[in-house]
Amino acid sequence: MKDQLINCTRNAFQKHFNQVPDYIFLSPGRINIIGEHVDYNDGYVLPAAIDKYICLAIRKNSESNDCKIFSYDLNESFSFKINEKIEGDSPMWVKYLLGVAEEIRKTGKRIEGMEVVFSGNIPMGAGLSSSAALECGFAYALNSIFNLNFTKKEVVLIGQRSENQFVGVQCGVMDQFASVFGQKDKAVMLSCDSLDYQYYDAKMDGCSFILLDSRVKHTHLTSGYNDRRKEVEKGKKIIHDNFNEMETFRDCTHEMLDSVRGELGEIIYKRCLYIIEEIKRVEVAAKAIYNQDFKLLGELLNQTHFGLSKQYEVSCPEIDFLVEETIKMDGVLGARMMGGGFGGCSINLIKNENVAEVTEKIKKIYKSAYHIDLKIYEVKISDGTKEYKENEYSI
Ligand code: GLA
């Protein structure tokens, strides 16, 4: 799969630009085990990079002031002048790349002309962070090719700022961090305010994470993601005004929240309640993974789903249906919607011996309820963004 993607991207480059690329970079999508919608609320998250990628083939062209880009999957081209302020509207896929170039320009560092072809096998709009993979893959590549000397954390933040400021989605830092810092067979426990992180063994002995793609597509520009962000910011301010000692949601207790319930109003109360409970759940989940206590981990996933669906209200009927149906089945330890929500995938912790039966069953049930062919991904936890060099790379 990975080799096929690399060959296909390299061939497309040769065909499009009549040259061989100098560099190949691979940037992965991510799953998130637990810690949803808390990355922009100073919480902890537990994502991991997966073996689905955006592949970028690049050739430096120091004589030119242009960056010429071809998206193989969309069969569309775009070019822009490097190191010049970027203005005006452009198609969405272009914005992810322009945003990166613009964020780099703002730091005062300079890049040179180049040709780029990219292609990917991360399903788009499925909640697997294809956009973060593209942003971070491009930022990582430019950093490496033009010796910009950004740290890996700076690359992550360039990707995130590009999405916040150029694309307009007020996302947190989780997806970009997972894409860049992913490690084979490890989940990354990230503290989203300090960006401190720690790797956890994610080899789930006897169980697997299986993704069920509802095929309900979403984009967080219109999904309600930015609204949730505003709601919790408003909530946080109200709580802080009443309890000055509360600096982040980590310091907020149920008692504090309950005492300002009237002032918050029911909707914002529910949103904040979800956040403080999810922050606590991630800490318990990390310990459960450490102790290989999959029963407990599964229960926590179920609780997160309840919270996302009923308190934070970012699920959708199709995903709720998938979760409700799968958790009834033998061998399913837990399930929940994953990522920003409003569509995309559910993540399911399933005992290995039951995976085939569960996936067969849920496919049929889903098809008869929604007339949609469910897609099933058995992903492997893999390394983060890297330059691909023949004979050197192993995933
Ligand atoms: C999207 C965002 C992330 C995060 C998740 C929800 O994937 O890009 O920053 O907020 O939703 O956990």
Structure commentary:
The chain has 395 residues and is an alpha+beta fold. The protein folds into 2 domains: 2-201 and 382-392, Ribosomal Protein S5, domain 2, CATH 3.30.230.10; 207-379, Alpha-Beta Plaits, CATH 3.30.70. Helix content is 43%, strand content 21%. The chain has 12 helices and 13 strands. The chain has helices spanning 2-17, 92-106, 130-145, 152-167, 174-181, 225-242, 254-259, 261-264, 266-290, 294-311, 317-326, 355-370; strands at 23-32, 44-45, 47-60, 66-71, 76-81, 114-120, 186-191, 196-201, 207-213, 332-337, 345-351, 375-378, 386-387. The strands form 3 sheets. It has a 6-stranded mixed beta sheet with strand order 5-4-6-3-1-13, sandwiched between helices. Strands 10-11-9-12 form a 4-stranded antiparallel beta sheet. Strand 4 (66-71) and strand 5 (76-81) form a beta hairpin. The longest helix is centred in the last third of the chain and has 25 residues, at 266-290. The N and C termini lie close together (11 Å). The mean pLDDT is 95. The site of alpha-D-galactopyranose (GLA) has 11 residues, from helix 5.
Task: Offer a quick outline of the entry.
The chain has 395 residues and is an alpha+beta fold. The protein contains twelve helices and 13 strands.
